[in-house]
Amino acid sequence: QTGQFTYDPGFTSTASCESALTYIDGDEGVLLHRGYPIGQLAEQSSFMEVSYLLLNGELPSQDELTGFTNTITRHTMLHEQLSTFYRGFRRDAHPMAIMCGVVGALSAFYHDSTDINDPVQRRIASHRLIAKMPTIAAMAYKYSVGQPFVYPDNSLSYTGNFLKMTFGVPAEDYEVIPAVERAMDRIFILHADHEQNASTSTVRLAGSSGANPFACIAAGIACLWGPAHGGANEAALNMLREIGTPDRIQHYIDRAKDKNDPFRLMGFGHRVYKNYDPRATVMQSTVREVFDALKVNDPLFETALRLEEIALSDPYFAEKKLFPNVDFYSGIILSAIGFPTTMFTALFALARTVGWVAQWNEMISDPAQKIGRPRQLYTGPTQRDYVPLSQR
Ligand code: SDX
């Protein structure tokens, strides 16, 4: 196509769709968002800027970025009725269970004002979802610890506002630590979009029926929760805590190699990357930045580094091309910032919402788009006649 180019990773026949948002070369460990390498975006951009890029296809001018950020800022509040919804959950409800419910419930507030055939209403719905996810995630955390909800503060950045809604309390001022805000924002960038992963494919399939975007994103949240997908960041830190000290690593490496043992190294391996996940590279370098900013040190980081070193020198992992993925180091950072492990996947969902809505918009705005209808290879019985119960 004029002015366009199509990278053919060689599996055109199995591709579920065409998309211009994100390109992954799993063999080379390359991740591009609208052509820009994830490493450059993580180091030089911001989550609001990357969100604009994913939604619009180009990096914004200063005016475009200011306008977009202001629009998102003005949608961060949640309808007060929804805070009642939270109170129906048990206090120990998993934040992902709450997010599935609350994001799905947004349909009840915006369904009748979201004509998905109207690009303006699609954009408003997209902005609402991107804007409200930090508020929804922060409220899930506050509810779990029995603290009052903290309203959005429009004087703060997207990420600074999220940190204040999560860790601030009405009884005292909350100061956003710039280095933590930067690290959190970078983590959001690293999780923004990732081609047709399981949860994004779920959002696309749900959206292909014409379902409203809030219900589609709730479906994506449900899929992301699985430990093989977004739930791996929580599982990876739990695994590192179970391993504890480096001397216990080899036992877990041996378990991961044992076909009769269901144990997998969490945060390792990937359906597409058969090389180092470029997001893990940035994540690893961010750990030290957060430790220095917060003057903390978590010995699990050394355990993680040693585990990576041992695994990557083991022929099993080399042969199967198993490398650390985005989830391997993220939990160490999030734990240092103060999040409980149960919030890790909720943070992944918060960030991935921009990818989900950008992919949903790309699909819905394609006039040739049809409802998704995967087929199967049938392996059941050939046709046979019914046998009455009396004869069975
Ligand atoms: C995410 O798709 C995306 O883009 C997802 C994601 C995104 O941004 O949306 O990148 C986010 O989900 C990252 C992945 C997070 N999940 C985990 O870290 C969980 C642990 N990883 C594994 O469960 C596994 O690696 C998967 C599920 C991610 C992939 O599993 P596959 O499809 O089996 O991987 P594979 O085909 O490359 O496996 C090759 C072999 C298999 O053994 P054999 O059948 O050849 O004997 O390696 C084995 C696997 O059993 N293997 C592992 C392993 N991962 C794969 N063995 C031990 N430990 C592991 N972690």
From TrEMBL:
Residues forming the catalytic site: H270, D327
Pathway: Carbohydrate metabolism; tricarboxylic acid cycle; isocitrate from oxaloacetate: step 1/2
One GO CC term, this protein: cytoplasm
Keyword vocabulary terms for this entry: Acyltransferase, Membrane, Transferase, Transmembrane, Transmembrane helix, Tricarboxylic acid cycle
GO biological process: tricarboxylic acid cycle
TM stretches of this protein: 328-351
One Pfam family this sequence matches: Citrate_synt
Any GO molecular function: citrate synthase activity
Alphabetical list of InterPro entries matching this protein: Citrate_synth-like_lrg_a-sub, Citrate_synth-like_sm_a-sub, Citrate_synthase, Citrate_synthase_AS, Citrate_synthase_bac-typ, Citrate_synthase_sf, Citrate_synthase_typ-I
Catalytic activity: oxaloacetate + acetyl-CoA + H2O = citrate + CoA + H(+)
CDD domains linked: EcCS_like (cd06114)
Family to which this protein belongs: Belongs to the citrate synthase family.
Name recorded for this polypeptide: Citrate synthase
Organism: Sphingomonas lacunae
